[in-house]
Amino acid sequence: MVKETEQQKEQKHLDEVLGLIKKKESELDHSIEHAQNEAQNINSHFFDDVKLDYDGYSTSMDTALSIHQQQQMLAERQNAWQHSAKQLSTLQRLEKKPYFARVDFQEPNEDPETIYIGLGSFVDKEDHFLIYDWRAPISSIYYDGKLGKVSYNSPDGVQTVDMTKKRQFLIEDGKITNMFDTNESIGDQMLLNVLNEKSSTQMKSIVTTIQREQNKIIRNTSADLLFVQGAAGSGKTSAIMQRVAYLLYRYRGNLTSSDVIMFSPNQLFNDYVKNVLPEMGEQNMVQMTYWQFVSRRVPGMNVENLFEQFEDNEQNDKIVNLKNSLQFFNAVTRYAKHLEKNGLIFKNIYFKSKKKPFFDKEKIKEIYYGFNENYHLRNRIEATKEALINSLNRRIEPETKKAWVDKTIESLDQEQLNKLYDRPDQEFESSAKEEHFLARKIVIKQLKQVSRKIHQNRFLNIRAQYLRFLRAVPKLIDLSKWDISEEEWDAHIENVKERFRNGRIKMADISPYLYLYDLVTGRRTDYEMRYAFIDEIQDYTPFQLAYLKYNFPRAKFTMLGDLNQAIFTKDESKILLSQISKLFDPEKTDVVQLTKSYRSTKEITNFTKQILRQGEKIEAFDRRGPKPAFYKRDSIEKEYSALQDILAENDEQKLTTAIITKTLAEAQEVAKVLKERNIKATLIGSANQRLVPGTLVMPSYLAKGLEFDAVVAWGVSKENYHQLDETQLLYTIASRAMYKLDLIYTGEKSPLFDNLDEKTYVNK
Ligand SMILES: Nc1ncnc2c1ncn2[C@@H]1O[C@H](COP(=O)(O)OP(=O)(O)OP(=O)(O)O)[C@@H](O)[C@H]1O
């Protein structure tokens, strides 16, 4: 019965805290109302209270000051109001579940202390913390250590305390439904409770059960590059979301969500994680895919998308490997440097006539290369633009004498004409002066097109420049080391050129293209961005990462990935880590490994890890479920019957199922057949769709980062998966399953399953 009385005591404490929260809420309600009224009041009496006095200098200074004071008062009230509103929203969140843990500890030479940890802080009148935010320095001991001596980073440096109790609570509607004392970092019991929940279309926060290793990632503030290699389902994405929340708290006042950018694998995934931060009371960071990041820079071009990239079998791997490498990045850098001396390609700028250029490209070239050698790319372009604008200004006058100007004036109706004057009653000494005035107005207006072209660097020919760079590559890089012949390279350039002609560009070209553009035009990179997160790093190329680093020179990077799940870069991802490390100071690089997988049952994790050639390191979490099952069928018809049976069974168990195929075409086919059979399933064929409850059908590359109660891996035959570099693909598909995994095929099973231990699956 001891436990019961303990629980009663805790319930009493909880009731007290809830009472105080309620009280504070009504106080805040009051003060918000008050502040609002007052602000309204100030607004309506604004000019009554301001001393309006326009005689003489000093009094008008008084007036200005008075206005300023009023404005400041208003701003203060508004601030107080916003502050209260924010506090209120924190309390409203706490009201549902004030805290989830209690820790007892003692600092050397101090009295023992008890603290409660929750989603936000709650302080009563006496500045006494009734609840500590999970991100507060002291809260770290809850996640980090076992009972006994434990250290944490405080604002005054590392502190060591003696932790004597760690208690976890499950609270529902103001009642403690369960509580346990634990000695583990976070008791498995609590974790099991959380993990047993069903999957949903939205990711959840893991605040209550952050694991020790994850806590390290979340609270790391020292590394310029934090690299996390983690098995599928080890909580990498969860950890990122918590980390963003942590950083926003730790640097509150100095860091806002717009200083943080996250690159995610696809739009579907963005949708999946979009509630995590708001639920923790924080705003979402800037989120985009790499494709969006590059595409928005080239509105006139069609950049190869996820689907094309995945389903493109024509590309020459050797050439793609070269273009994705750091060596290629360095080659662009060197090439651009050489453009400071010569080789930049210019375009004529036209105005009115297509026959004779307004600014001749030879002339522009002369200006550009006319500056002395201290001018680098950025100054050169800026000075060239300035010179062109000056020259443009000098050409206004001569242009007014041209015939087109008179014609234009004649063609204007009265209203259009009136608009040209500065004032309706504007007077002129003579009609010649008036005509000249109007002519100038017209010319200036029309020449705006030219000045716009100058500002937008339209006198450069970046496409031609990029092709010229490609032609120079054999001089910059030893192609034979990449096993590429000169003929292959030349043919490839023709290919790129042809694609340009159709307004298209491949993923392997867009980053070098933009990088070259940035260097040549001296585009300012984003110095404001403070943190950049890249999830699913294995799908990025070294070039892309180098380019991101170039774009966000002051940002600290957190890169997370599983080199075993490389879908786009396949085996190349293995060398990724060594390449990335070259971009950062090794002293400021931290690498963290997460080996425990939380997503799936032990049966599924133990099965999927065998698909990998080096999967031994992955540890399963002890949560049980059925063994994965293979369904070998001898006809497509029978495959569908099996699928139907599986879906019926999953439905009965209330499991959400995703049928994952290799390609989009297969997914479309499966969705079509299911529809014919009146089985409800949603095809996710593009990343712009929403995840919806119920059965889903999707191609492998859209399943990245997601999870489902049950997965059906469709068509896992030898015919479909036989290349070694498809291992990662199969692994990604299989590791999306939380509780149940079924694999269907006809003919022979994929040889990539050859090493499976028979005891880890069943045949059905
Ligand atoms: N500390 C934790 N407490 C509770 N649940 C956790 C914890 N860590 C991870 N999980 C759960 O495990 C699942 C997998 O997490 P997450 O998606 O973050 O993994 P991941 O490493 O990004 O996976 P992948 O690389 O396979 O996409 C999620 O359901 C997540 O909620």
UniProtKB/TrEMBL annotation:
<dbReference type="GO" id="GO:0005524">
    <property type="term" value="F:ATP binding"/>
</dbReference>
<dbReference type="Pfam" id="PF13538">
    <property type="entry name" value="UvrD_C_2"/>
</dbReference>
<dbReference type="Pfam" id="PF00580">
    <property type="entry name" value="UvrD-helicase"/>
</dbReference>
<dbReference type="Pfam" id="PF13361">
    <property type="entry name" value="UvrD_C"/>
</dbReference>
<keyword id="KW-0547">Nucleotide-binding</keyword>
<keyword id="KW-0413">Isomerase</keyword>
<dbReference type="InterPro" id="IPR014017">
    <property type="entry name" value="DNA_helicase_UvrD-like_C"/>
</dbReference>
<dbReference type="GO" id="GO:0016787">
    <property type="term" value="F:hydrolase activity"/>
</dbReference>
<keyword id="KW-0378">Hydrolase</keyword>
<dbReference type="InterPro" id="IPR000212">
    <property type="entry name" value="DNA_helicase_UvrD/REP"/>
</dbReference>
<keyword id="KW-0067">ATP-binding</keyword>
<dbReference type="InterPro" id="IPR027785">
    <property type="entry name" value="UvrD-like_helicase_C"/>
</dbReference>
<keyword id="KW-0347">Helicase</keyword>
<protein>
    <recommendedName>
        <fullName>DNA 3'-5' helicase</fullName>
        <ecNumber>5.6.2.4</ecNumber>
    </recommendedName>
</protein>
<dbReference type="InterPro" id="IPR027417">
    <property type="entry name" value="P-loop_NTPase"/>
</dbReference>
<feature type="domain" description="UvrD-like helicase ATP-binding">
    <location>
        <begin position="209"/>
        <end position="601"/>
    </location>
</feature>
<dbReference type="InterPro" id="IPR014016">
    <property type="entry name" value="UvrD-like_ATP-bd"/>
</dbReference>
<dbReference type="InterPro" id="IPR048228">
    <property type="entry name" value="HelD_bacillota"/>
</dbReference>
<dbReference type="GO" id="GO:0005829">
    <property type="term" value="C:cytosol"/>
</dbReference>
<feature type="binding site">
    <location>
        <begin position="230"/>
        <end position="237"/>
    </location>
    <ligand>
        <name>ATP</name>
    </ligand>
</feature>
<dbReference type="GO" id="GO:0000725">
    <property type="term" value="P:recombinational repair"/>
</dbReference>
<dbReference type="GO" id="GO:0043138">
    <property type="term" value="F:3'-5' DNA helicase activity"/>
</dbReference>
<dbReference type="GO" id="GO:0003677">
    <property type="term" value="F:DNA binding"/>
</dbReference>
